[in-house]
Predict the structure.
Amino acid sequence: VSAGGRTTLMVHSGDLDRLFAAFSVALGAAAAGMEVTMYFTFWGLTALRRRRRFAGKSFADRLLAWMLPDGIDRVPTSRMHLGGLGPRFFGLLMRRRNVTQLPELLALAQQMGVKMIACETSMHVMGLDRNDLIDGLVYGGVATYLADAAESKVTLLV
Amino acid sequence: MFMCYSPIPHFLLFVPNLELDCTGLKCPMPIVRLSRAMKEIEVGDTVTVHADDAAFPVDIESFVRMTGQRLETLTGPAPRHTAVILRLK
């Protein structure tokens, strides 16, 4: 049951709508039997966060930890955010219309063996260490992403 | 709408079949469930998928083409779609 080939997504955005598109495509590709790599950089990393943690961090890092969304269930929408009302509104609509939401899509992607790479440099900039992110990630840099992207049939930047 | 892609309709062949109800599920979930079902069945068996997602009839054809399986039948009418997929490999 395989289409063969690889799909690579660079997930730069931490917005609900864009993450939804990224995870839908990743799941579709994984379902078709393709190997899937998702490379999370910058705002995309907020989707992989656990709940915020302040212990042992510098002032700047604590500020970032407080400012950034902590987890895939708390990400903002790119438009119509309305001070936090937007994501709740879309969450409600998605639940009512039986569209699978982000936390479940992320869990499914992990179950289906989607390789998720967290960009170490972005993590450093954002003041995140490995304890701040969910389990089951690969930690790497541009070379890790490029190695997978070079042999991919589909590459996307979200 | 009734489309039959094979010379003999599957229901005349007494092929082991797995029923999969994806009614109410939206893209990409029917495809995700189907891929799991395809791994459960043996080569030569079929899956019958019921779905009411608007994208399903188009998606199922692409899925089958990508994965190298065969779409035996795809019946409507919208929004209730039923597809029978034969596992070839």
